[in-house]
Amino acid sequence: MVMSPYNHQRLESNTEENPRQKYAKIYNGIGITNIVLGCIAAVLAVTGLAFESYSCCNRDIAAGIWGGVMLIISGTIAVNTARMMTKCMLVLTMLASAISAGVGLAMFGVELAFAVKMNNHNYWQYYYAKIVLLVIHGVLSFIGFTGMILSIVNTVYSSYALCTGHSVSFSIQRDQNGFATVTVTRTSPGDQSNPECSAQPQDNIEEYENIPTQQEISQNRSPPERPPPPYAALSDQKQPPV
């Protein structure tokens, strides 16, 4: 591989970004959102169970509680993955998000069915309890649907990071003579010593020596030759004596 000295500065600032680090903010944002949604779902589910005592025929299965707990677990794993970008954490995030997506879908269906059932039910001791439960189950169904979408997105991003977790970095060092050495390091997902739980650079390093810097190029470059002006030929000719 031959590297031109004129694109030396371009290579120094054109380093490829690792997809794992690129999506760290996405993992963190989705994880925090899932934790918040899970806490809200658990609180609303407990409140709904308290209002169920005013009904004679409804039996709540507390979908908001177990659905909210699963959202909290998957969100916590996603936040930890954003801080420790290892292969183990990415696999764990992918599995937890996939399970959370299924739980969110089940939560959405159950809560929506309860809301429709209560709307058609007339055996209520207090009418305001029916209104409160309709709102609670409607919000829980929305949380289940939102958690399902976020979990699917998180699963896709973690899968993509596992498949394309390679990065290329360039480092440039100058010796005492003023020449530069470019080191190209390629990082692939997983180390050979522990391929399951690490992402360390492998021995895939290329060095290019004796590459002048941009300052040396500008100092050693001779100015471009310009053609003489058209009047120069006339001025060089000897004028005849008067």
Structural class: mainly alpha
Q: In percent, how helical is the residue content?
A: 55-70%
Total strand count, please?
3
Oligomer: single chain
Number of structurally distinct domains: 2
| Mean pLDDT over the residues | 72
Annotation field: number of helices: 8
Uncertain ranges: 1-16, 189-209
Q: Please state roughly what percent of the residues sit in beta strands, choosing from under 5%, 5-15%, 15-25%, 25-35%, 35-45% or over 45%.
A: 5-15%
**How do the strands line up in the largest sheet?**
1-2-3
Biased composition (Polar residues): 186-203, 211-222
InterPro entries: MS4A (IPR030417)
Keywords: Membrane, Transmembrane, Transmembrane helix
Transmembrane segments: 26-51, 63-82, 89-115, 127-150
Please tell me about this protein's structure.
This protein has 242 residues and is mainly alpha-helical. It folds into 2 domains: 19-163; 166-213. The protein contains 8 helices and 3 strands. A 3-stranded antiparallel sheet has the order 1-2-3. Helix 4 (63-83) runs antiparallel to helix 5 and helix 5 runs antiparallel to helix 6 (127-163). Keywords: Membrane, Transmembrane, Transmembrane helix.
Produce a short descriptive summary.
The protein folds into two domains: 19-163; 166-213. The protein contains eight helices and three strands.
List keywords for this structure.
242 residues; 8 helices; mainly alpha
